[in-house]
Amino acid sequence: MSFLKQIFTWWHKQTLGTFIYTLFAGKFVGMDEFGNKYYSSSKGKRWVIYKNYVESSKIPAEWHSWIHFLKSNKPSSEIKKFTWQKKHKENLTGTSEAYKPEGSLINNSKKNLKKYETWK
Fold first, then answer.
1. What Rg do the C-alpha atoms of the chain give, in angstroms?
2. What are the residues whose beta carbons fall under 8 Å from the beta carbon of 88, sequence distance 6 or more?
3. Is the pLDDT of residue 10 over 60?
4. What distance in Å separates the CA atoms of residue 60 and residue 71, rounded to the nearest whole number?
């Protein structure tokens, strides 16, 4: 079933063309904490094969800078993170875990709006 999804859908991991290109021209560079695999070719092209479905916000910041040619070296696995840094999350818009600030139409709690007085 996974093979059929790969042939007929572009949002499931990779397309058939990407699979063939990776097989012949791809050099494995590394894998991130989510299981996404990163490749490069001898011509300088870089790409990612996602673990499950294609979602570009699943790429952590370290790999984002590599894949967009901001850094020439791949990120090391021993990345020093500070205590105040949060763990990377994908974009949760459209899900039940999306950010809903106080006063938004989607949030269940309504913001207490102060009534204003008109000019006299």
1. 21
2. 33, 60, 61
3. no
4. 14
